[in-house]
């Protein structure tokens, strides 16, 4: 589906067998009368994707912000959060963590788990999308204004609630959480683009870029095979801040003597959980590629 600058939506075919197009792409296309055909892709500003051993899965292109939703319940995986942050850093996309459901009793623990992220400079906002929708709207408005934002989050964190709050006409379904499994059902099955109204700002040229939200389906695995192990530390802000003091230039920061990163970690500048995730990722990304 291609949208013209005038806002008309045209159903287009692609040339060739397999389409590599993703939501957020800009394309050149020709009309075929009742529809259109996509001729070419305009070069992407950025592309957020995950990659495992077998395949690459793109989320969306040309993003201004990645908003990662987490919540006290279901308990979010710090490994998944970190993977999303690393993928965004690798694609040069600004990030923000949204802690939702702050009305729940587990909020202080979740807030504590996010402290290392705040400390390393990752913006964290607090939301209670269901309980305090107007406050959530006020918190989100300046963040989303004039930008294209991809909302990412494991199932059950409140993605659909957020879309429904900001895009009243969206028929995004709000999934009822599966209490028994302590996991949400996957109710969002395709990536969708929504224009946001009422969040307009004027840029330096006097134009008012419209705000847009992209809703993507939940995911189980977040492969980072696009990242080489030696790139990893540079893409994790707490690790990156400690770089430049290792005895060996190709230090893995795992076991080498004279490692400035491990010294920083020993001083408490890198959380134990982040150290564990780094070690796991380093190992995973060092495995032989087929
Ligand atoms: N207590 C509380 N519950 C919330 C809040 N926001 C959302 N929920 C609930 O959390 C559950 C999951 O919310 P959804 O918006 O469906 O989550 P989702 O991330 O879209 O999940 P999927 O549709 O499974 O991908 C629903 O039962 C919501 O009512 C909140 O601020 N506080
Ligand atoms: Zn080191």
UniProtKB/TrEMBL annotation:
One Pfam short name: RsgA_GTPase
Enzyme Commission number(s): 3.6.1.-
Enzyme class at the top of the EC tree: hydrolase
Keywords: Cytoplasm, GTP-binding, Hydrolase, Metal-binding, Nucleotide-binding, Ribosome biogenesis, RNA-binding, rRNA-binding, Zinc
Record domain CP-type G: where: 50-222
Domain EngC GTPase: 61-208
GO MF annotation terms: GTP binding; GTPase activity; metal ion binding; rRNA binding
Note describing how the cofactor binds: Binds 1 zinc ion per subunit.
UniProt xrefs under PROSITE patterns: ENGC_GTPASE (PS50936), G_CP (PS51721)
Subcellular location: Cytoplasm
GO terms classed as biological process: ribosomal small subunit biogenesis
Record function comment: One of several proteins that assist in the late maturation steps of the functional core of the 30S ribosomal subunit. Helps release RbfA from mature subunits. May play a role in the assembly of ribosomal proteins into the subunit. Circularly permuted GTPase that catalyzes slow GTP hydrolysis, GTPase activity is stimulated by the 30S ribosomal subunit.
Subunit structure comment from the entry: Monomer. Associates with 30S ribosomal subunit, binds 16S rRNA.
Xref: HAMAP family: GTPase_RsgA
Protein name: Small ribosomal subunit biogenesis GTPase RsgA
């Amino acid at each position: 589906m291609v949208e013209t600058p005038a806002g008309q939506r045209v159903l287009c075919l692609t040339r060739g067998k397999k389409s590599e197009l993703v939501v957020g792409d800009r394309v050149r296309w020709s009309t075929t009368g009742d529809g259109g055909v996509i001729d070419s892709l305009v070069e992407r500003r950025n592309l957020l994707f995950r990659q495992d051993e077998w395949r690459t899965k793109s989320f969306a292109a040309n993003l201004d912000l990645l908003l990662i939703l987490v919540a006290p319940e279901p308990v979010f995986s710090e490994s998944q959060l970190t993977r999303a942050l690393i993928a965004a850093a690798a694609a040069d996309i600004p990030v923000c963590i949204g802690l939702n459901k702050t009305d729940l009793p587990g909020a202080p623990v979740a807030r504590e788990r996010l402290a290392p992220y705040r400390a390393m400079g990752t913006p964290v906002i607090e939301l209670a999308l269901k309980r305090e929708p107007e406050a959530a709207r006020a918190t989100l408005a300046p963040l989303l204004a004039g930008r294209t934002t991809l909302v990412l989050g494991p199932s059950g964190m409140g993605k659909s609630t957020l879309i429904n709050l900001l895009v009243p006409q969206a028929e995004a379904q709000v999934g009822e959480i599966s209490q028994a499994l302590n996991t949400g059902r996957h109710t969002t099955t395709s990536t969708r683009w929504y224009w946001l109204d009422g969040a307009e700002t004027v840029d330096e040229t006097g134009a008012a870029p419209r705000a847009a939200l992209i809703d993507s389906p939940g995911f189980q695995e977040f492969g980072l095979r696009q990242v080489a192990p030696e790139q990893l530390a540079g893409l994790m802000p707490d690790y990156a801040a400690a770089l430049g003091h290792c005895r060996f230039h190709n230090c893995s920061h795992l076991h080498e003597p004279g490692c400035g990163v491990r010294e920083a970690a020993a001083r408490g500048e890198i959380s134990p959980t982040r150290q564990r995730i780094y070690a796991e990722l380093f190992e995973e990304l060092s495995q032989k590629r087929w």
